[in-house]
Amino acid sequence: MTKVIACAHEKGGVGKTTTTVNLGVGLARQGKNVLLLDADPQGDLSKCLGVKNPRELTSTISTVMDYLIAHSDEDAHPDFEYTAPIRQHAEGVDFIPANASLAATEVTLVNSMSRETILRQYLDMVKDNYDYVLIDCRPSLGLTVVNALTAADSVIIPVQAHILAADDMDALFKTIGRVKRNLNPRLQVDGIVMTMVDSRTNYGKQIDTLIRQAYGSKIKVFDQTIPRSVRAAETSAAGKSIFQYDPKSKVAEAYQSLAKEVLVDAEKRLKRSTERSR
Ligand code: ATP
Ligand code: MG
């Protein structure tokens, strides 16, 4: 069974892309088949995976979404090359890139019949080949993010360990609730991941406590946090994950252990739901 996880937060620069790449490669290192999907017209995930100039790509996530929007009247799509944008990365994950065309696709979606479900329709065609599909969302709550949440089984919310972080998430939770009620009842929140944590400072420890107090009773906050490190910031330019760039670093260790935590949680959830359905 495939699990589709949207990595989402309305706020920019909280570590969504870094988490998608390194959690994805971390899951692949645990033997899982992983597809990473860039759902941000900035194309940051694509750049992190070594695409030098996303603008030059002719086959991206928007190419397939545009096709499905244009052919929404048809039951079958025999001419549709739905695997065309899927690429292989040297570190054992597949990925689908994005570029600025995705911003135009989002505009087209507004008047489309299936404006919230195009991405789900597409992922349903390709996801069976994978154990995990991770979607790197853009920093917004617009239609592309709604598409990602509609296609997803769950959401992981990276939160930059900062004193204001606890105030930032109301709009995101409203959107998740709206998608769950109207479009995707199975949507769950897997948890909040604290990124860029300065755990050696008192300030860092206070923020950890604050976020766990503010959200911990309602939502899981992953035990594993991601430390702040310049090595993490350097990986995007290198086009590699932290596991290739600096395998012995604290950040590599943290993302590997986050991947294990995600796997353990997924197994627990699966066990609970099979017990319930007996
Ligand atoms: P956007 O909202 O623009 O898509 P994002 O939420 O995807 O941003 P990232 O791009 O992953 O966030 O990270 C923001 C910046 O912080 C990047 O420059 C990244 O390299 C850096 N960064 C990410 N994780 C860490 C870390 N653990 N320590 C230090 N810097 C980090
Ligand atoms: Mg990003």
Describe the structure.
It is a single chain. This protein has 278 residues and is α/β, with parallel strands linked by helices. 45% of the residues lie in helices and 13% in strands. The protein has 11 helices and 7 strands. The protein has a 7-stranded mixed β-sheet with strand order 3-4-2-5-1-6-7, sandwiched between helices. A hairpin with a 5-residue loop joins strand 3 (87-88) and strand 4. The radius of gyration is 18 Å and the shape is globular. The model has no long low-confidence stretch (mean pLDDT 94). Bound molecules: adenosine-5'-triphosphate (ATP) and magnesium ion. Adenosine-5'-triphosphate (ATP) is lined by residues 12-18, 40, 44, 139, 195-196, 226, 228-229, 232-233, 236, 251.
Write the layout of secondary structure elements.
Elements lengths: L2 E5 L8 H14 L4 E6 L4 H5 L12 H10 L16 E2 L5 E3 L4 H10 L7 H9 L5 E6 L5 H9 L2 E7 L9 H13 L5 E8 L6 H14 L14 H9 L3 H4 L4 H28 L1
Parallel strand pairs: 1-5, 1-6, 2-4, 2-5, 6-7
Antiparallel strand pairs: 3-4
Helix pairs in contact: 1-11, 3-4, 3-5, 5-6
The site of adenosine-5'-triphosphate has 19 residues, from α1 and α9.
Oligomer: single chain
- Termini Cα gap: 18 Å
Largest sheet at a glance? 7 strands, mixed
In helices, the fraction of residues equals 40-55%
Bound molecules: adenosine-5'-triphosphate, magnesium ion
Strand content: 5-15%
Q: Label the structural class.
A: alpha/beta
